[in-house]
Protein 1
Amino acid sequence: MTKPIASLIALVVLIFALNTKFGSIPPLGKFFDPDAGFWANAETTLPENEILHIQGLLDEVSVVFDERRVPHIFAQNEHDLFMAQGYITAQQRLFQMEIQTYDAAGRLSELIGENPGVQDRDLTTRRWGMPWAAEKKLDVVMQDSASSIIVNAYAKGVNAYIESLSPDEYPVEYKVLDAAPEAWTPLKTSLLHMNMLRTLAGGSSDDRTSRTRAYFGQEYIEKFFNTDPQSLEPIIPNDRVWDFESVERPNAPDSDFIPKTAERVQFWEPNAGVGSNNWAVDGSKTASGYPILAGDPHLSLSLPSIWMEMQLNAPGYNTYGVTFQGIPGILIGFNEHIAFSETNTGSDVMDWYQIEFKDASKNEYWYDGEWKPTSKRIEEIKVKGGETIIDTLVFTHHGPVVLANPNDTLNEPDYHAMRWIGHEAGNSLKTFIGLNKAKNYDDYVAALEDYVAPAQNFVFASNEGDIAIWVNGKFPNKWDYQGQSVSDGTDPAYDWQGWIPHKHNPHIKNPTSGFVSSANQESVGDAYPYYLSDEFAPYERGKRINDMLREMENITPQDMMDMQMDNMSLHAESIVPEMLDWVIRDSLNVKEIEFITAMMDWNFEMNADLQQPGFFYYWFREFYRSIFRDEYGAAGVRLRYPDRDRLIEVLKSEPDFALIDNIETEEVETIQHLATSAYKYAYDVMATYFGNRGEDWNWGYVMNNDIDHVGQIPGMGANDVYSGGSSEAINATRFGYGPSWRMVVELGPEVKGWGVYPGGISGNPGSPNYDAFIDNWRLGQHFELNFYREKPETALYEITLTGN
Amino acid sequence: MTNDRRSSFNLSLSSKIMLLALLILITAFILNLFLPWWSITIPGLILGYLYKEKATASFLWGFLALFLLWGGQALYIHISNDGIMSGRIADMLGVGSPLIVVLITAVLGGFISGLATMTGSLVNQKEATA
């Protein structure tokens, strides 16, 4: 071969290689090209005023960006409002919108390519019936003409933005993945709703409860899972009188079904990072005489931020708050009349049924004394650069037959069908649009009526002086503890048999205490005539909120903002004094003894600058685990763990509780032994990972608070965001979870709002605005929100959208 | 004396080749604005062919042109963006410093252009000998 030909071949091969993605390495030539690669996404100047022509707009729309770049949309009709919302959301957050819908549709492999973990996730998503249910939900949305106008306009707006892009203008993540955005459809909005359902209502302990009952007996279940801690204050206070005639409850089956152990099938556990606070105080407790509402949803934190601030203004609308990218409207916010915020409800709305198929074809299953036909659906998972995976879903009347571990072959001897509220058709869009436009309590209740899931505790306050909270969602009318463990799929007595009427959903309006609140704890006390669930958040956060609100008078918005940053741990307060008593001092070395003094001086605040919170975190975790490790380990299957609050109560009243002894040793361990060895373990962990006792022991570092990129792209998140907080504190920040938006709204003739989240408006990792609010967020510096009554004179910049 | 003469001869030779580099730089800049990244090979191929320099020299001057062009553009963006994007890409690639990201950009552009220019010159030399 001659030199020129060799050189030419080398050049062609090089161009080809640098234009191709290898594994996770982007096509390097394309990627580094200063004109069209990632450099083109680096923001070098402030955005400027623009006039954009968008086909399909009915009238002119002005989008004003304030000094923090929050978009305020001023439209002249509803259609244009949501079309502009779609356009602006895509302009700021296109990749985030898309990757979340790919995830919800079980299509990540299509975007990312061959990767076993991603394929498993896609398969599980399909088997959960996510795309199937998204289609069902969309049908209902489209039947409502007002809703269909909104989702269609929103999709048109997103598509107008996508069509305006040339490849060099694609968000940088597309360049990393060597992908292009695809057209938006109303189905994608429905898929995002499914994603919220999976995050907030997609988890179950049924399998673990079944095995725990089989292993330890019903008494253990009663003791730990069916008994509330004494300190629990339910969301709807115990003194609430239920002044309605409840509908008939279904009868529990006579004999308790013993499910097969099904060890290989592991259902998804409830999402541990999910929680939230909200509360409202009425005028009797505030300095202004008008209600104040506060809300902070806790989620897995990400960049771009889960939320984006936005104001929507059009005839019938003037709402400020946060949006979820891909869903029209404001999800948490306020207008000139009312404010609203949600926390998650732990209702048991996912149940598992053991299924008996007639044969391997799975065409028929046994139910109520006869063979009933199944239905099937083919799922095709496309894989970028690989072969398409075909999967057949089998449906019973309960729902899809799910193998939670997708690597299990369909030869698995035990099959389980999932009955999930996520599969129930409904139109949650209508609820949020209703709340966006609501003027008073009646509008709020009317908006809540159609809501299905994920069930939320909707807190409310209005200019008319009303405050309220509704535990809201579509709840199956169950017999007591129905669905606590795996159900008998052949017996109709285990089916969901009707619903709790909406007007019987737990709620309270204007209580004499002057406040309402929720923090994911149990919704109601024993007097409530229906059964909701046995699985709620521990009592600590909720009680702390109530303790504070009971004491407070002449409340100002600043008091509420400070309260959102409260780091007090009632959990620590409830057990640290006892644990310190239990530690056997003779077993400790000098350094460990010295730290005992520090622990005794601790005020139980989970503050960033303290050394005790991190130590306590590891100490309690090991103490808890050492109680169960031996027995639970010996069982050889996954069992259900008690909540820490109930366990602590049991330990205090029965310090010789049977599980404390380590069954693997000859001697009999006492609670003193466990507290001591856990103490030494914690000291060891702290010394190993954080060095000699000093500033590095500060909780702000120990909590390892990383806010990752939404697509897990390294370098595009924010690492080690130094903060105080804890899952049991009102400020629930820890380990990359926590308050994803903190909002305080003072109602009154001139409604005022304050808020902050850990991110920015822009979803562009190359923009200084991408993570601009993180420091304000971690320090609890809420911004005063620019809630405009009419289009303001001045702005950082303004985009005018015109139809022609 | 001899040394002086050789250096002045080299200088005139260099200025001719420097013009080659400059021409590649300018045309590549213009083409790259409108065409995909691989369009930066076109000036090297054509000008390398026309200039008929030795393979090594062609490679080096072709390299220099795009090293300066892509490197300069990247450095300009790096500075006016306060290193936000380059810092994130440095983290993503695990290369430590944002300036290394600028350097990679420069070397990548340089290498492609160098290879193209060398290819152009080799084709012409082949024709000349044939």
Protein 2
Amino acid sequence: MSMLSLKYVVPGDDFTRAGEASSDVKHKLKQLGYDSKAIRRVAIAMYEGEINMVIHAGGGEAFVEISPEEVEIQLVDHGPGIPDVEKAMQAGYSTAPDNVRSLGFGAGMGLPNIKKYTDELKIDTEVGKGTTLTMKVFAGH
Amino acid sequence: MTVKELAEKLGMTFLAGESGGDREIEGCYVGDLLSWVMARAESGDVWITVMGNVNAIAVASLTDSACIVLAESAGLDQDAKERADQQEIPVLATEKDSFATAVAVAGYLP
């Protein structure tokens, strides 16, 4: 049963605002008394996802469902899609432009970090249509 | 040791987030690639970097770092300063490079 449903708009091309959604989720999980390790995993995975949407997809939307057992995050964008998911999952593989690298991103760690910090990750992507990431973090895991 | 005490010992100045200065330091991490840092920095770390942008503040918040130390007098952006003040994340400045800072911090870790 869901305790809390949240929805955020992630603005495109605005690195200063990327991270607002994950910070807010982190804050709410703290208020709910969630396990601090689970909070950290949720926050990191979601922030990486937000940054990906800003870099590659012109923004998107985030849907978060919080229950006592798990946090489910769905990140939906209408960007270019991921042509080769297997490659994108390799640590160090990046298609981010140079200006993004100068900010400290684009190291090819985004999706690998998301995978590392979540208990379940599903990537639905279609070139030219967009990408939906669905990830779950189990509480107290 | 708290962030404030560390700053005094090492002669570092607060650029932002001084209200978070009572936080205890527990470890140290050095890095500039934010995704890398996000994956590896631990709660309570003194994070030494040259990245003074608003995303660095987000990374410090998400990893629950005790503070950020900007090495080699690297600048702190204005919006980053505001965010750090809001979130009470101490940002310290030093003229030393990352290596020398890490060596100095090591002497004060639990």
